[in-house]
């Protein structure tokens, strides 16, 4: 898949996986996020291999991340979205969402899904809504799986 890069001010968002700093991603997801506590670095590496990843950089230092898991035809799951705390409040999450939602391979999908505990207002700006028929959805959820590994 073609690498897409967007630069603004001293910031860059790119799908170039070679630029990803696995240690920054692991430190945030395993230690600071509420959704991936204790995730092993090997799991993150595997998820990167199997997803469309967006790295956010200040100069060349990684400060944010998101991944999309998709068939690039009908559906996509957006996950692991973060901007490091010291860079929040600068509109970077909006820039990241604009970059993701405008990616050429992610256009005209029938369904996008994500889970969030606290960023509903951000996602609403890009057309996301609460699930219309939650009674149709099912899941297997194992929130402590990484602690058990």
From TrEMBL:
SUPFAM superfamilies: Acyl-CoA N-acyltransferases (Nat). It comes from the Bacteria. Transmembrane segments: none annotated. InterPro entries: Acetyltransferase_Butenolide (IPR053144), Acyl_CoA_acyltransferase (IPR016181), GNAT_dom (IPR000182). Pfam families: Acetyltransf_7. Residues 12-149 form the N-acetyltransferase domain. This is GNAT family N-acetyltransferase. It comes from Flavobacterium cerinum. The lineage of its organism: Bacteria, Pseudomonadati, Bacteroidota, Flavobacteriia, Flavobacteriales.
